[in-house]
Amino acid sequence: MARFIALAKQRIALTAESDLPEIQAWRRAFGKMGLKPTQYRCASEALLRRLRKEGDLPSVHPLVDLCNAASAAFAIPIAAIDLDRIDGNLQVRPAIGTEIYETFAGDIEHPEVGEIIFADESDRAHARRWANRQSGHSAVMDRTTHALIVAEAMHDTAATDVARLIATLRTTISVLWPCATLTEVQVP
Question: Domain B3/B4 tRNA-binding spans what residues (predicted)?
């Protein structure tokens, strides 16, 4: 993780996180959704901003820490979701507004109509604003044995950069957790 943090620090030493093409693409997408880009930052921008201000990222869980460090290094949002907390299939879709979203503090919210969410078959939102705001309900914790890792990008070189990110995560996870079984799914 130190290697990822060092890469992220190098990037933000040269330019503000908000000027990175990866972040600019999310800001445009959020703007098209009617969200203020400085009020609703994508996950990687929030991590880079925290890294710039505080010099490090908080420790949450080893897998989450790895994903956060990689997200900062690549400036690409990454979500880690506990699959055992998902009811049935997970679908990325616009919210209808009745879905249940649990914050990390345990508060219940309902996503805005049309907001892009990750919802399961019981209409629970496990992520909001694509994968940029994860639910406390399905957060990776010590109990987690099956995790879904999602990387999302919209910038011009997103396909190449996400493929490189996934390969890097795959290698790193295999080294850190040699008994882990990894399955890759590409979504267009």
Answer: 24-171
For helices 158-176 and 21-32, angle between their N-to-C axes, nearest 10 degrees: 110
Pairing assessment for the beta strands 100-102 and 124-128 based on DSSP bridges: parallel
| Lookup: tokens for 165 | 């990110």
- For residues 69 and 25, give the distance between their C-alpha atoms in angstroms, rounded to a whole number: 20
- Quick check: 111 and 99 in contact, CB under 8 A? yes
* 66 and 88 both lie in a single domain: no
The mean pLDDT value for 50-77 works out to 97
> Which pLDDT belongs to residue 39?
82
- Tell me the C-alpha distance between 47 and 34, whole Å: 22
Q: Whole domain around residue 39: which residue ranges? A: 1-77+156-181
> Which of 82, 153, 154, 152 lies closest to 124 in space, CA to CA?
82
Instruction: Please state the domain count of the chain.
Output: 2
Please tell me the predicted confidence (pLDDT) of residue 109: 96
Condensed to tens digits (0 to 9), the pLDDT of residues 69-128 reads 999 999 999 999 999 999 999 999 999 999 999 999 999 999 999 999 999 999 999 999
